[in-house]
Amino acid sequence: MTSIKVPPLGESIVEATVSRWLKNEGDVVAPGDTLVELETDKITVEVPSVTGGVLKQRFAKEGDVVKLDQLLAEVDEKGDGARQRPAAAPAQASTPAQPAQPAQPARAAAPPPANVSEQRVSPAAQRLADERNVDVSRVAGTGRGGVVSKTDVIDARSAPSSPAASPPQPSAPRPPAPALRAAAPGERETREKMTTRRKRIAENLLESQHATAHLTTFNEIDMSAVETLRGRIKERIEKEHGVRLSFMPFFVKATIAALKQFPVVNAQIDGDAIVYRHYVNMGIAVASEQGLVVPNLKDADRMGMLDIARHIADLAKRARDGKLTMEDLTGGTFTITNGGVFGSLVSTPIINYPQVGILGLHKIQERPVAIAGKVEIRPMMYVALSYDHRIIDGQQAVLFLVRVKELMEDPALLAID
Predict the structure, then answer these.
(1) For residue range 99-141, what is the model confidence (pLDDT) as tens digits?
(2) Inter-residue contact 404 to 359 (CB < 8 Å)
(3) CATH superfamily, with its number, for domain 215-415
(4) Nearest to 141 by CA among 131, 150, 132, 128
(5) CATH 3.30.559.10 residue window(s) in the chain
(6) CB 398 within 8 A of CB 244
(7) Which residues are catalytic?
(8) Would the pTM of this model clear 0.85, i.e. be above it?
(9) Is the peptide bond before 354 cis (omega within 30 degrees of 0)?
(10) Which of these, 103, 151, 231, 281, is most buried using a 10 Å CB contact count?
(11) Cα–Cα distance between 150 and 168 in angstroms, integer?
(12) What is the C-alpha to C-alpha distance for residues 387 and 357, in angstroms, rounded to an integer?
């Protein structure tokens, strides 16, 4: 009998919530099969079986909070009591009930039922398949050992439908958080337990508000110059380098330059000391289905514009696919959050504690502004810097934001480092 326990979950994480069991008691499992999915405050952890056999017993229910090294399940290597479900498919194929129909063997050869029972699907892929009505038995797995990954489901969903496939569902943008349970007729209220991640997000936000002297300063940026530059080069960049150039890399470069000029904004308080970091691990807030996460670009100050764009795209994709690692989520020194992608015009972002500053970006909106004594329509963006007033003075905060504004309004300066 092999014991399956809660694995190491990452730095300073000692508990997780059992979010979903992928195997039932009595199911046959192969080495590497995912048995259960655990949710921490930062990432989702898939716990595999280390041996083949039968899942004998589960010791935790979905929704239970489990501790590090706690027993989750036991796998019987001898396989006593295994569910022999695959036997039904061959019996059906060999039934001599209708010898007068020659077309029947050809139809039976289309789907491979023998592989369906053995097919392994990652939890993220199964969840996406359920949401998009994709039959995973028809999806070829490209993951390790033939496991169907989330990418396989996405590719299968976007591929042209075969005549036997179900009709495509109308595409619609999915919300960044899971949908609430539908209310029953006449039900006035519903109650839903907070996930481990949501509880930890709430705790961290409250800690930030209580542990820092929070203050926010605002400015606005004329995005005309950077819009013109981006519009001139983005197609060439994508064609030659395969990178879609958004505005975020420009802001990252401008912020790094401003942090070098005002290093206290990139610092951290440690007891009665101020720790100045001579590197920038730039956090980029990303909205995912499980909640807001802030992966960071390690040593972003050593990257060029295209490298920054590539790394941002990679982090965002892995955040939405639930494939971020603890390394991605720890060690950040400063954060940028962009509420403008959802239509926010202005906001006061909360510091990602124990950092001491966060830059908030917002929607680009055409507004009348005074230029050389004349009123012109320009694409304008409000920006906000929330900072810890314990170590950052108002003057430093304002000048930091003014420097970001200057660099974005004259992006040629970004080439001078």
Answers:
(1) 444 444 444 343 443 344 456 676 667 766 776 677 777 787 7
(2) yes
(3) Chloramphenicol acetyltransferase-like domain (3.30.559.10)
(4) 150
(5) 215-415
(6) no
(7) 389, 393
(8) no
(9) yes
(10) 281
(11) 18
(12) 4
